Amino acid sequence: MSSAEAVTGAIARRGLMLVLSSPSGAGKTTISRRLLDQDDNLSLSVSVTTRPMRPGEVDGTDYFFIDRDRYDQLAAAGDLLEHAEVFGHFYGTPRSAVEAALAAGRDVLFDIDWQGTQQLKQAAREDLVSVFILPPSTAELERRLKARAEDPPEVIAGRMAKAADEISHWAEYDYIVVNHEIEASVAQVDAILRAERLRRERQTGLTGFVRGLSRKR
Ligand code: 5GP
């Protein structure tokens, strides 16, 4: 069985692009990892970035870490599906890996900001499903950012300031999940993914399938 068939039975389908956005610390990375672990038909779009690698990050798994010259080359060549400056660093989505996955009927998960989401919406509205993750409160957001301790305090303060800015874009998303509790949030995003896979227009093999059903025996 192909991976496309694993999701919709014998009916051919095309993959969808599931975007998760949130301010830093709202739980997006944890939710992404859980979804990727539990869903064999979902793969992560690994972005390029010019920001320095954090402890524990792996080149090619978390990001492709590149310098500014390489980033400019990729952007100029049209090799990035979307790209944006976030917190003073540059980020972008390599085009070819996404296109190959979608063509094979696989779904792709994107951990990108609102600017990238807007660009993807313009490029591929039909294939896009966007989810915004909100923190339960400002106090909880701050607590989670401090608990991470990966970044220096001035970076955390900067991200708190930017959180309000990112949150202001919530209404541009198809679905909103308030992350009170991680298990419940993972289940909610999983439910969104399962329902969106069944949308008529994504099941490209339906016409033939239904024709077969109506054929006189
Ligand atoms: P971080 O540096 O903490 O990994 O990510 C900072 C922000 O950049 C997050 O909001 C993340 O979603 C966003 N981001 C990561 N990769 C991309 C990308 O390829 N494109 C865009 N537009 N944003 C990205």
Summarize this, please?
This protein is α/β, with parallel strands linked by helices.
What does this protein look like?
- The protein is an alpha/beta fold.
- It has a domain at 3-48 and 107-211: Rossmann fold (3-Layer(aba) Sandwich).
- The protein is 45% helix and 19% strand.
- It contains nine helices and nine strands.
- A hairpin with a 2-residue loop joins strand 5 (80-86) and strand 6 (89-94).
- Helix 2 crosses helix 8 (182-197) and helix 6 packs antiparallel against helix 7 (153-167).
- The protein is globular.
- Bound molecules: guanosine-5'-monophosphate.
- Guanosine-5'-monophosphate is lined by residues 24, 47, 51, 82, 84, 86-87, 91-93, 111-113, 115-116.
Helix and strand composition category? alpha/beta
Please give the count of helices. Answer: 9
The major beta sheet can be summarized as: 5 strands, parallel
Q: Which molecules are bound besides the chains?
A: guanosine-5'-monophosphate
